[in-house]
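Supplementary Methods S3. Complex input for the calcium ion-bound model.
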Amino acid sequence: GTHLVLLPALVAMLLLCVSPAPAKQGSSCLSAPAEKRCSQQVPLAVEHPVRSSISSIRTAAPQQPASTFSSTGFPADCSHLTSSSPSGVYVIQPAASPPRAVWCDMDTEGKGWTVVQRNTYTTEITWKESWTTYKYGFGNVQGDHWLGTEYLHLLTQQGTYKVRFVVRSNANVTHYAEYDIFSVESEASGYPLRLGRFLGGGEDYLTSYHTRYGGIHDNMKFSTTDRDQDQHSGNCANSYGGWWYDKCQNVLLNGKRYIFWPGICSSGDCASSLILVKPTDVC
Ligand SMILES: [Ca+2]
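Predicted complex, serialized as structure tokens:
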């Protein structure tokens, strides 16, 4: 049956980010400039099991201050859940977005992550979908899915977000790469990927250039089978799925029987992937 989990109190992000008092550096969380940096360092690779359990949809109760909850009472993202909330499907509503059911990951370090992509090697999803299908999302939020490029844009334009790209090798070791800023710009500009500083000890395959692979991903527009916006003479998206291709990829998570991360699954054989986002830590 459906369980309603009430949120008894607001979480710390709310208090820190919506405070009317100006931040010491002269900017609030919601208007933080891209150059804002946090000193937090995280390791490149930490073991963490990818959750696959299915649970019922939960609805966060309406709470007081308006700016982190929509007029319909849904939180702006999963970071507003209480820390004791379990992982599962919740309804969120980013600014200017309709309400959306998403998977909130409360098990990964830090809790409160909103899942925007999940894939498994043996997925039934082809990932070779059109621009419009990618725009509005596809799959099952309880399993493999793409939240929707438009929702990625709406989610990440309402504040300053960080991102964690997670892959699990076929030896069942989970690795991640985190960036302190993550946003997807508008459809009119081609949904380009904007990443901040790489937080991790290993090699950065998304914001640094790799001639041996596909170039770079940061600042690349999104490409699909029916909209080639990559830097390659052909269309990179014809081989696997929609992605922020250059010519073509260093890293590729949107593929059926192909999840590729150099050094971890160099033949595209990672067991699973996740892309998690949450508001950037308050400095
Ligand atoms: Ca091309």
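Residues 149-157 form the longest helix (9 residues). Residues 1-55, 61-66 have pLDDT under 50 and may be disordered.
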